[in-house]
Amino acid sequence: MSSSPIAALSEKKARKVAVASFVGTALESYDQYVYAWLAALFVGTLFFEPLGPVGGVLASFATFAIVFFVRPLGAIYFGHLGDRVGRRKTLIITIVLMGVATGAIGLLPTYEQAGWVGAIALVLLRLGQGLSLGGEWGGAVALTTEHAHPRNRQFFASLVQLGSPVGSILSNMVWLAIFLTIPYEDIVTEGWWRIPLLTAFPLLLIALYLRWSIDETPVFKELLEKDRRAKFPFLEVIKRAPFAIVIAVGGALLGHGSYTLMNTYTTNYGVEVLGYSAMEFTLALTIGSVLQLITIPTFGWLANRYSSAAVVAWGAVGTLLVAFPLYWIILDATFFVLVMIMVVGGILPTASWAALGGMMADLFDDKTRYTALALSYNIGAAIAATLPFLLVIMREATNNAWWHPGVVLAALSAITLLSALQASRMRYSEREPLYARTGS
Asked: Rounded to whole angstroms, how far apart are CA atoms 257 and 275?
């Protein structure tokens, strides 16, 4: 039997919304990874020169991490707007704030040019990015899943996660072009480091156009019409679903932590300690990210078939098994082996990453979904953001012991595995919200 015109129209709208959400998260990821490269290789020299090599690295990672500490605040604020004013309007605000802040970093004076002025402005702009990031992902997942039919919801939720590898690919391509054409020393002295940041401005216009062209979700429209909106979404989430928040945070840790390990800490560790070139790591990470364009939709399809929580658990088990071998092999690897490490180290946690949105959306009801998704996701991000700082300390304390990153990756995998197993017992249908089942 053929589908009805209304069903076909709804499916077309769901795809359009998924594309708009994906492009927004791609810009978010692009901005994040562009700065991750800057933090790993240049920020210490550019803005914190008086602190010396080790102090500069720690300060650089601190500017990377500070964004994640304010993200929960952004989640509370923009989650409130998203659950009270609307998903679409809120996401337009977050994308503008993010794009403008990223581009502005590319205009800052360095320490050599203006002393500590540039460093202070850098921190302030990173705080603005953090507030924006706090509201972006939760809104994108809510927007996408609330437009999608229940039978395809898990798959469409996975498409939001495509933004991460696409953003990584774009940022890696820009940095790769710079590494291939500009001498390494000139990137700092002649200001070529600014180019990747300034590209945020034109990308913002594309994302803004797509966000502007979509409708508010049917779920929020119904909340508005029936006056069912939560008055204080954050307080309601904390009161009625604290355990669900804990489970969602644990489920997000591997996805956040593995990206932080691979794109920030392992890059610095590989280049500064193991002697790889920055270009080798850029190519390896780009190849791994390209493969995710295939694996993420595949894992999304599997989530539709078996459940998102099951796919998150599979990814966590696989990553747990390879956590230590990966960092032992990387000690002395050829470029081909380095690529294989980045591929394996990326694909296995990608299963957990691809199915994360679907799993988390299943844990919360429609009245507070934006706030709950944003808050739990960004608490996980804040925890993961401390990893580079922690790992630098571990590296010094263990005299560069090869296993120190493996300990962290294995721990993240174990926590996510336990969270996914618990989440599989907490899923609810649209007709029977979690809150109703728990008697709230």
From this structure: 23
Length of the chain: 440
CB 44 within 8 A of CB 60: yes
Stated pTM of the model:
0.80
Dihedral sign, CA of 413, 402, 340, 165?
A: positive
Least confident of 33-42, 182-191, 272-281, 380-389: 272-281
Sketch the domain layout of the chain as residue ranges: 12-437
CA dihedral 278, 105, 164, 310 (to 10 degrees): 110
pLDDT in tens, 135-147: 888 888 888 888 8
Run of H or E residues at 289: helix 278-306
Q: Fold for domain 12-437?
A: Growth Hormone; Chain: A; (1.20.1250)
Of the candidates 37, 3, 161, the one whose C-alpha atom is nearest the C-alpha of residue 106 is 37
Residue owning tokens 């002025």 = 117
State the Cα–Cα distance between residues 341 and 406, nearest whole angstrom: 13
- What distance in Å separates the CA atoms of residue 46 and residue 80, rounded to the nearest whole number? 37
Summarised one tens digit per residue, pLDDT across range 315-369 is 999 999 988 888 888 777 777 777 777 777 778 888 999 999 999 988 988 888 9
Task: Please give the C-alpha separations between residue 27 and each of 74, 92, 166, 176, 369, in angstroms, as whole numbers.
Answer: 17, 13, 9, 18, 23
